[in-house]
Amino acid sequence: MIFTLKNRLLVFCLLFAITVMANPQTQFEAANAAYQKGDFVAAIDSYEQVLATGSFSEEIYYNLGNAYFKTNQLGKAILNYERAALHAPRDEDIQFNLAIANAKKVDDIGQIGQFFVTEWWQGLHKLFGSGIWGGLTLLSLWAGIAGFILWIFGESRDRKKQGFIGGIVLCLLSILLYFLASSQANFENHSNQAIVLANKVALKNGPDKISTDVLEIHEGLKVELLDQISDWYKVKLSNGDQGWLPAASLEEI
Q1: CB of 105 within 8 A of CB of 219?
Q2: CATH code for 5-103?
Q3: Which tens digit of pLDDT belongs to each residue from 190-223?
Q4: Which of 21, 135, 199, 200 has a CA that sits 20 to 30 A from residue 72's CA?
Q5: 210: which residues sit within 8 A by CB, 6+ positions away?
Q6: Homologous superfamily of 193-252
Q7: Residues 130-185: tens digit of each pLDDT
Q8: Residues 85, 78: Cα–Cα separation, whole Å
C-alpha cells in the first residue's frame, strides 16, 4: 500500500493527537485550563481521564473536587476532597473546602467516642502522607546506623555511650515510623471508608431490596465499609448504626 503525502500527514496528526491525549500532564493542564474558563464539565472529564491513566495526586483530587462542587455534585466533591486529604492530611485548603462541602450535607449524624489509643494512632496518621512517613523512616534508620558507627569508632567513652544509646533509640523509632508509613500507605489504597453518592438511599437491615428500612441517608455522608455480599455493602455510620447499602449508591474513598 502506497501512502500519499496527505495520508502520511493524516497518520502523523492522529498519532500526535493520541500521544498528547495519553500524556497525563498534558491532560491535567487542559483540565486546569477548562476550569479557569469556567467549563467545569469539561474540566471534570479531563481530570477523570488523568485518573484513568493511573496517575493521581492530591492536587488532581482537590481540583476535581472543586469542579464537582461547582456543578453541585456534592457527593463526588466530598469524595475527591477526602481522597486528596488521604495524601495531604495537613493541607489547609483541602480541609477548608472539605469542611464547606460537609456543611452542605443533609444528614447531621453524631459520632461515638473511640478508644484513646485508636484516636492517638489516627491522629499520627493525619500528620503526614505515606511518602513523608517513609522518608522519616529512612532518616531515622540512617541516623541510628550513624550512632552505632560512633559507638564502634568513637574515641572517648562518653562518645561511645552516646552513640550506642542514640543508635538504639533511633532504630526503635525507625521501626515505629515504618509501621506508620506502611499503615498509612495501606489506608491510602484501601481506606474501607466510602461516600454516599446517591441523592438519598435507604439503609437496609439486610442485603436486599425487600429488607426493612433502618433510616434514610443522603448524598455526601461518609460510612465505614464492614462487609460485602454481591452488590450490597454492610456499612457503619459515625454514630454506630449499621445496615446495608447497594454498591451503586456509594464509592470507596
Answers
A1: yes
A2: 1.25.40.10
A3: 788 999 999 999 999 999 999 999 999 999 999 9
A4: 21
A5: none
A6: SH3 Domains (2.30.30.40)
A7: 888 899 999 999 999 999 999 988 888 888 899 999 999 999 999 999 988 888 88
A8: 10
